[in-house]
Write a structure and sequence with these properties.
The chain is an all-alpha fold and 88 residues long. It has one domain (2-87). It has helices at residues 2-22, 30-35, 37-49, 54-59, 64-87. Helix 1 packs across helix 3 and helix 1 (2-22) crosses helix 5. Keywords: Membrane, Transmembrane, Transmembrane helix. The chain crosses the membrane at residues 20-46, 67-87.
């Protein structure tokens, strides 16, 4: 579980930055941007710029698909939490 969280932390930093940049003026749309556009772009950017760090995860026995599914799970939980905060 720690490996998934470690991988997701790199995606989270990029995702929050992109989501805030895209969501300027649209605060109520922030969870949707965070869960969709921000996540897809951040996964692409992390994969593009940190391609050599994937060898670390391969050596530990984690494939790229497993890591992306774990990141999607974490991202979905955080997006649901943000959506619940905005609805309250």
């Amino acid at each position: 579980m720690y490996i998934y969280w470690n991988y997701y932390k790199t995606i989270l930093i990029v995702n929050v930055s992109l989501s805030v940049a895209f969501g300027v003026g649209y605060f109520s749309m922030l969870p949707y941007i965070f869960a969709t556009i921000g996540f897809v772009l951040s996964c692409f950017l992390v994969q593009f710029f940190e391609n050599n760090t994937m060898y670390l995860y391969y050596n530990l026995g984690f494939s790229r698909t497993k890591l992306l599914l774990g990141a999607l799970l974490f991202n979905s939980l955080i997006a649901l939490f943000l959506l619940a905060i905005i609805w309250i």
